[in-house]
Specification:
The complex is a heterodimer of chains A (268) and B (186). Chain A has 268 residues and is of the alpha+beta class. Chain A is built from seven helices and twelve strands. The radius of gyration of chain B is 19 Å and the shape is globular. Chain B is built from ten helices and no strands. The chains are: A alpha+beta (268), B mainly alpha (186). At the A-B interface, helix 1, helix 2, helix 4 and strand 5 of A face helix 2, helix 3, helix 4, helix 5 and helix 6 of B.
C-alpha cells in the first residue's frame, strides 16, 4: 500500500534523479562572459539612444516641424538598429522579449495546410465567410489567396498582397474567442500598453506597430508593462462576430496599413 | 569566482557578492525551468544584466537581491516559454507547426520534463528551490515573499499535477484531508 507521503517522496526522487542542473565552473564562466557582453552592448546602445534623443531635443528647441520629425526619425533608427544587437550578439536568444520573434510566411508549411484559390470571392464563398476586399488600395493588389484545408481547425482564409501585406480571417467557434484572438494585448500585460485603438470607418480595431522595447524591471523584479517587447510585424486586427480579421505587414507601419484595413469588410 | 576587466559595475563589490552568492543557483534554476542548458545560461545572463541595469538606475536593496534575482529569473523563464509558444510569428496564423521543439538536453526523462513543462513558472521555481537547493519551506517563503503555508500548498499541488500528468495511480489511502498533513511535511 502506497501512502500519499510515499508517492510524493517517490516523485521527488524521480525528479532529482532525472535532471542535472548544477553548473560546472566553465558554465558559470560562460554565463559571466554573457553578462559582460550583454551589459556592454546595453550600455553602448543606451548611450547611442541618449545621443539621438538629445538630437531630437535640440530639434524641438529649434522649433521646426521638420527638425522634430528628423530627430524622432533618428531616435527611432537608433532604437531599431542597436537594441536587437544588445540581445542577439552574445547568444542569439531573445528571452527578455515577447512578441513576434520570427515573422515570415513559410510557404512550405502553408502548402501543407491550405489550398490556393483563384480569387478572394471564390475562397470566401467556399468557406462561407462574408468577406469583401477592395483591391488596388494604396497601389497594392492581391497576389495570392489561400483557404485552409478542411482538416485544419480553426479554418482560415489568407490573402497576400503584392507588397507582402497579409490579411488573415480566422473563423472561431464563439464571438469571445474571436475577440480574444483579435486583441494582441489580451491577457498580456507586457503587450497591452502598446496596443492602440484605431477607427476603421466606424469599426473599432486594435493596432500595434513594429516595436523593440528592451525589458525594464521594477524594484520587485517584475517586468514593466509595455517593455520587453519585440515585434517585427505591424498589425491591425478586429473581430466581427465569430470572425477575427488581422491585417499584418513586416514593412508597413500601422498608418500605412489603415487604408488596406478599411478596404476589408466581414459582415456578421 | 572572481571578476576581471569589463565595466566598473561588473567589478563593484555588491555585484561580485551577488554573483558569488547566487549565480550558481540562478543558472541551475534557469536550466531546470527551460530544460535547456543553452537557454538557461542565456536567461541567467539576462538576469544579472537586469540587475546591473536596475542597480544603475535606482538600486535593489541589498537584503532583497536574492528574492529580486529569482523573481526576475522566474519572469524571464515565463517569457521564454511564452516566446516559444509565439515563436512562429506569422506562421502561427497559418497554423503551422512551430520550428522550435521544446526538447530538453538536461532532463533524461521525457515524461518528467513534459510534466514539469506544464507547471506554471512559480510552481517550477518552488520545486527547484525545494528539491535542488534543498531549502526549507520557510526559506523558500522568504525568497518568494509568500507565506510558508502558501509555498507548501504550491509545492504539493505541483507534485500532484505532475503525478496526474504522468498518469500515476492515486495512492490507496489518499484522502483530500491528507493535505492537512502535508502542511507538516517539512
Amino acid at each position: 500500500m502506497q501512502t500519499e507521503f510515499q508517492a510524493y517522496r517517490e516523485l521527488e526522487s524521480q525528479i532529482v534523479g532525472s535532471v542535472s542542473v548544477q553548473p560546472s565552473d566553465s558554465q558559470v564562466s560562460v554565463v559571466l562572459e554573457g553578462v559582460r557582453q550583454r551589459y556592454e552592448s546595453s550600455v553602448d546602445s543606451n548611450q547611442k539612444s541618449r545621443r539621438m534623443m538629445a538630437m531630437a531635443g535640440v530639434a524641438v528647441v529649434v522649433g521646426t516641424v521638420a527638425a522634430v520629425t528628423l530627430g524622432l526619425g533618428l531616435a527611432y533608427r537608433s532604437n531599431t538598429g542597436s537594441a536587437p544587437s544588445a540581445v542577439q550578439t552574445s547568444a542569439g536568444t531573445d528571452t527578455a522579449y515577447v512578441g513576434d520573434a520570427k515573422p515570415g510566411v513559410d510557404r512550405e508549411a502553408l502548402a501543407g495546410q491550405a489550398t490556393q484559390a483563384t480569387t478572394v470571392e471564390e475562397a470566401a464563398k467556399s468557406m462561407g465567410i462574408p468577406l469583401t476586399v477592395l483591391e488596388d488600395v494604396s497601389g497594392t493588389s492581391v497576389a495570392g489567396v489561400w483557404m485552409s484545408k478542411p482538416e485544419i481547425e480553426p479554418p482560415f482564409l489568407l490573402v497576400e498582397y503584392d507588397d507582402g501585406t497579409l490579411v488573415d480571417v480566422t473563423v472561431l467557434q464563439t464571438e469571445e474567442e474571436a475577440a480574444r484572438l483579435a486583441d494582441p494585448g489580451a491577457g498580456d500585460p507586457q503587450i497591452a500598453p502598446l496596443v492602440s485603438e484605431v477607427d476603421l470607418d466606424g469599426t473599432k480595431a486594435h493596432a500595434i506597430g513594429r516595436v523593440d522595447v528592451p525589458a525594464s524591471y521594477t524594484a520587485e523584479g517584475d517586468v514593466v508593462p509595455g517593455t520587453g517587447v519585440r515585434r517585427g510585424t505591424a498589425k491591425i486586427s478586429w473581430a466581427s462576430g465569430v470572425f477575427a480579421v488581422r491585417v499584418m505587414s513586416e514593412t508597413k507601419s500601422v498608418d500605412d496599413l489603415l487604408p488596406i484595413a478599411r478596404s476589408i469588410w466581414v459582415e456578421y | 569566482m572572481g571578476l576581471a576587466g569589463g565595466e566598473r559595475l561588473l567589478e563593484a563589490d555588491w555585484f561580485i557578492e551577488a554573483w558569488d552568492s547566487h549565480a550558481r543557483g540562478i543558472i541551475a534554476y534557469c536550466v531546470f525551468a527551460t530544460g535547456s542548458r543553452t537557454d538557461g545560461e542565456d536567461i541567467a545572463s539576462d538576469v544579472f544584466v537586469a540587475l546591473l541595469e536596475t542597480t544603475d538606475k535606482k538600486g535593489v536593496p541589498p537584503d532583497c537581491v536574492e528574492a529580486w534575482l529569482y523573481t526576475v529569473a522566474r519572469n524571464l523563464c515565463a517569457s521564454h516559454h511564452r516566446l516559444v509558444r509565439r515563436r512562429v510569428g506569422l506562421l502561427s496564423l497559418l497554423r503551422a507547426e512551430p520550428d522550435f521543439r521544446e526538447e530538453s538536453d538536461v532532463w533524461n526523462s521525457e515524461e518528467l520534463w513534459a510534466a514539469a513543462r506544464r507547471l506554471d513558472e512559480h510552481a517550477r521555481l518552488v520545486i527547484y528551490l525545494r528539491l535542488f537547493e534543498d531549502r526549507a519551506f520557510a526559506d523558500i517563503a522568504r525568497v518568494l515573499d509568500r507565506k510558508e503555508s502558501a509555498v507548501k500548498m504550491t509545492y504539493y499541488r505541483a507534485l500532484d499535477r505532475m503525478r496526474r500528468f504522468l498518469g500515476c495511480k492515486e495512492p490507496e489511502d489518499v484522502g483530500r484531508a491528507a493535505h492537512g498533513g502535508v502542511r507538516n511535511a517539512d
